[in-house]
Amino acid sequence: MKKRVLAIVLALALALALTACTGGGASSDKVSITIFNSKMEIQSQMEEMAAKYAEEKGVNVEVYYSSDTVAAHLSTRYAGNDPYTISMVDAKDVYSLAAEHAVDLSDQDWVKNTTQAIAIDGKTYGFPVCVEARGIIYNGNAIEKATGKAFDPTTIKTTADFQALVDACKAGGMENVTGVMKEDWSLGAHFLAEVYEQHDDPDAFIAGIKDGSIKLIEDKKFNDLMNTFDVLKENNYAKAAAISAEREVTEQKLAEGEIAFMYGGNWDWSVINAYDYTDKMGMMPVPNDSGDGSSDKLVGGGSKYFFIDSSANTSDEQRQAAKDFLNWLVFDEAGQSFIVNDCALVPAFSNITLAVQDPLGASVKSYADNDALIGNYNYLPDDHYAKVGASFQKYLAGETDRAGFADEVTAYWATAEVGAH
Amino acid sequence: MKQNKLSYKIQQYLLFAGPGTVLFFAVVMVPFVYGLYLTFTSWDGVSATKPFVGFDNFVQAFTDGDYWLALGRTAIYSVFAVVLINVVAFALAYLVTQGIKGQNFFRAGFFVPNLIGGIVLGYVWKFVFNRAFVAIFSATSLLATTEGAMFCLIMVSVWQYAGYMMLIYVAGFMSVSKDVREAAKIDGCTSSQAMRNVTIPLMRSSFVQCIFLSITRCFVVYDVNLSLTNGEPYNSSVMAAMHVYNQAFTYKNYGLGQAEAVILFLVCAIVGVTQVLIGKRGEVEA
Asked: Which of A89, A386, B91, B115 could cross-link to A93 by cystine, CB 3.0-4.6 Å?
């Protein structure tokens, strides 16, 4: 008898423990929203913010992260009829997902405060989380030490200027002056994409490559940018084995001033930040001989977009809570501070005036404020970065020359189609 | 209740094999059949609609040059890796069944690489190839060249699987009774003759198993591929499984990727089953 009582008590205790696990104390009167975060470096900040936001606003916020490809991860949630209330995705994902999955946000107040929101057919779907831009990251401290002269990035306009500065650094005792990231996304999606983006009409340019009316190898912009790339390539600290250079090592060398230049973007701060970096770091445009003002502008714009789920799996209360959350990010001081101070992102909204903390972000902000950003071209096919990135890697490794590289890019475009927009 | 009644049999089956059957169908058969269905659609992996396109994906898969390059590369990799894995594993098994001092310690030691997950293992070896070897020999990294990257992949796979296959060979060695070897010795065999004519034929089932396991694993290698080379340099080390993954998820051609996965499955199954059939045919018993 005693044993049976004990068994029942134990079973009950276990059952209770189980329900305690699953219940999670979600009280029914509170609205719960889920946020998918695809920016790994701000995950802990997002979680802290969610806890605080829940306390102040009475809305449960849960933040999820996945290292999977964004679209692949979201597809599993859609397949399971369990979409996130708010999803953070890349610009191209907004174009492919919005029609089926996103809520029209055109009536929101923040729309007029940004130039970076994504609208399709006149309807705004994507809320820009931050601004990111690409250019050459420099270590001003290292340059000044090597050349003995004050460094002003705005004086470097042409490839010749850049070459002269690199030579001066070398003469001053810097053994290798540059680093090149060999990652296919850096080469293919970032550097080569500048060739498209710096044309006045990227659509027409790509169409020209496709129908053969534009020969890439004869294109002035392509050659101008590749000339500058050659300077980076020739002075690469890992020139002998450029393909095995690791991103962390390159950025560490840049942070500590062993090299002075690297092509990248302000997101690289999350890596540089981990090392003992010197002061006077910043970003400058890729100098080139086009003479079209592109030497004065970084390339970039909104990066990472929030959209709100439109399916029946999300209730109207949840949607309203999600809209409130986006407004909080833009108009509430705490929300603004979260983006700028906690996450160290460059805000995409003109009403946010907080100073950006990190030097690369500060560079981007100053270019953005002066309207000196060349917009992203968000419609490249999904396999673009991998395929032309591989061709670019061959060029970087010296396995092919510029004409061979241009041929491979042209061959890629023969069958590829840009995304609908 | 009569034990030969159908209802009794069904009841017994459900009682003992029911949960297993349900699980098998839920996690193997249903996804497999659903996957087959998806090969006939042009689904992008995210969209709510799955347009039916018939055999288009298979036609595309057969004309996808990159896929066949990757598959050919995988075949070459598999040939080298399977041979080396089994030679090394057999040699190790031979060594640790000879009664050398501390042989249990060595058995455990050789097996350990298999306990480390492929992803971790890839990163560890990447560090060794990219930093350690470069620092010691002041040479350029092997991972920077096309042939070097393949060599690294093969080497790491051999290192990973040799210990595991060694265990199977050890069991094979143990299963050959001492009597037959002794008899061979008394009949005048040298120990290498005894090995070749007595021990190895009796261990044939171990070879069949090991070769089958190593072939099937090599053909679908993904984790080491991802963390060690990630397809670099310039996509020259992309194996079939990685190409399939990229096709389905990164390039968002889910239907095409799935079709290529089915082809990979068929190739893998044909090679594996043929090998087992040939291997089994010559099996002998003492």
From this structure: A89
Tell me, yes or no, whether A151 and A281 share the same domain.
Answer: yes
Q: Does B89 have pLDDT greater than 90?
A: yes
Reply yes or no on domain B64-281 having CATH 1.10.10.10: no
Residue extents of the structural domains in chain B = 64-281
Band of the pLDDT at B204, cuts 50, 70, 90? confident
Could you tell me if B55 and B128 are in contact, meaning their C-beta atoms sit under 8 angstroms apart? no
- Is A410 a domain residue? yes
What whole-number distance in Å separates Cα of residue A143 and Cα of residue A151?
Answer: 7
Pick A246's closest partner by Cβ from B130, B145, B251.
B130
The whole-number pLDDT of residue A267 equals: 85
Total count of domains within chain A? 2
| CB-CB neighbors (< 8 A) of A386 in chain B | 231, 235, 246, 250-251
Domain CATH code at residue A57: 3.40.190.10
> Whole-model pTM?
0.81
Low-confidence ranges of chain A (pLDDT < 70): 1-29
The residues near A177 (Cβ < 8 Å, ≥ 6 apart) are A166, A169, A170, A235, A259, A260, A261
User: Which residue among A100, A240, A386 sits closest to B235, beta carbon to beta carbon?
Assistant: A386
Strands (E), chain B: none
Residue B12 has pLDDT above 80, yes or no: yes
Instruction: Determine which of A185, A192, A244, A253 to mutate to test the interface with B (most B C-beta atoms within 10 Å).
Output: A244
Mean pLDDT across the stretch B20-45? 90
Mapping DSSP to helix (H, G, I), strand (E, B) and coil, where does residue A417 land?
Answer: coil
Asked if B233 and A393 come within 8 Å (Cβ–Cβ), the reply is yes
Backbone angles phi, psi at A139, to 5 degrees: -110, 95
